[in-house]
């Protein structure tokens, strides 16, 4: 059984259908990248799994439990944490307050304290700046903070919508290095929306290409980044797999 299973998922906004018949699975400790053009439905897919957008058909199972009709906070407590596009943190609260607030979702306070150490070890700059308002962090540091917050919830599956958006390449490297470390050390499962297939192949894992709300192609990230099938499918060339 996969940690996350999505089957025949259809969802959208009002009468507009955005996602059609999505099938995917994420195993324990696995990374799945979601690539695709702007407007393909990548963010909508993450929001639907998180319970923010309601599916109109299909199933979403987290560790075997059907979550498609549950409220976002219930899904979060079951172990799915979403870092949305835009890196919103509580700007007026300190770095540590932001982290502790997310840790409050955990049943045990000592678990939250241990996780705080894990997050600070992973992103030492957050430890250094723990007492300053989150709004004063740089963009890259805020990205680390929102990822740190997702970790504080103790989720086994963390979804991140475009971790590289608007960040300098060296900061993106740093964020991905931290994510790879987490995957190794904690066996965390990751679902990452990433436009750059080069980034995806550097980190390794599986990749699905979403186009017009459907999965146009899926496979090993490294293998896909080497051939032309991915580029063909991305642009919707005739004959693409
Ligand atoms: N809140 C909303 N209400 C109505 N339509 C929306 C809403 N959010 C997104 N859409 C539409 O759903 C489609 C998919 O949007 P989505 O944000 O999921 O795409 P995306 O693949 O994440 O794109 P990007 O790469 O630009 O982030 C688009 O046509 C978009 O206009
Ligand atoms: Mg998006």
Q: At the first level of CATH, what is the class? A: Alpha Beta
Order of helices and strands: EEEHEEHEHHHHEHEHEEHH
Number of helical stretches of at least 4 residues = 10
Shape: globular
Q: Main sheet? A: 6 strands, mixed
Provide an overview of this structure.
This protein has a six-stranded mixed beta sheet, with helices on both faces. A four-stranded antiparallel beta sheet has the order 2-1-4-5, with helices on one face. Helix 4 runs antiparallel to helix 6. A hairpin with a 2-residue loop joins strand 9 and strand 10. The protein has helices spanning 42-50, 72-77, 95-103, 109-122, 124-128, 139-152, 169-186, 197-203, 221-226, 229-235; strands at 4-13, 16-26, 31-35, 55-62, 65-66, 80-83, 157-161, 189-193, 206-211, 214-220. The chain has a single domain (4-235), classed as P-loop containing nucleotide triphosphate hydrolases (Rossmann fold). The longest helix is centred in the C-terminal third of the chain and has 18 residues, at 169-186. The mean pLDDT is 90. The protein is an alpha/beta fold and 241 residues long. The structure holds adenosine-5'-triphosphate and magnesium ion. The site of magnesium ion has 4 residues, from helix 1.
């Amino acid at each position: 059984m996969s940690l996350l299973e999505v089957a025949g998922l259809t969802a959208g906004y009002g009468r507009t259908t955005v996602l059609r018949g999505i099938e995917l699975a994420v195993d324990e400790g696995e990374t799945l990248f979601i690539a695709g053009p702007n407007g393909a439905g990548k963010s909508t897919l993450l929001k639907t799994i998180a319970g923010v957008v309601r599916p109109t058909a299909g199933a979403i199972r987290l560790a075997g439990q059907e979550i498609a009709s549950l409220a976002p906070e219930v899904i979060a407590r079951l172990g799915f944490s979403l870092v949305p596009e835009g890196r919103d943190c509580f700007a007026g609260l300190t770095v540590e307050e932001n982290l502790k607030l997310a840790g409050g979702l955990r049943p045990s306070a000592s678990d939250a304290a241990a996780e705080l150490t894990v997050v600070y070890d992973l992103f030492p700059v957050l430890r250094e700046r723990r007492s300053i308002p989150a709004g004063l962090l740089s963009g890259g540091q805020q990205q680390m903070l929102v990822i740190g917050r997702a970790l504080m919830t103790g989720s086994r599956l963390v979804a991140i919508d475009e971790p590289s958006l608007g960040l300098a390449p060296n900061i993106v490297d740093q964020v991905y290095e931290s994510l790879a470390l987490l995957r190794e050390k904690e066996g965390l499962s990751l679902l990452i929306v990433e436009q750059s297939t080069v980034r995806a192949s550097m980190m390794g894992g599986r990749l699905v290409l979403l186009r017009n709300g459907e999965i146009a192609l899926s496979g090993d990230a490294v293998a896909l980044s080497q051939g032309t099938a991915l580029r063909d499918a991305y642009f919707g060339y005739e004959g693409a797999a």
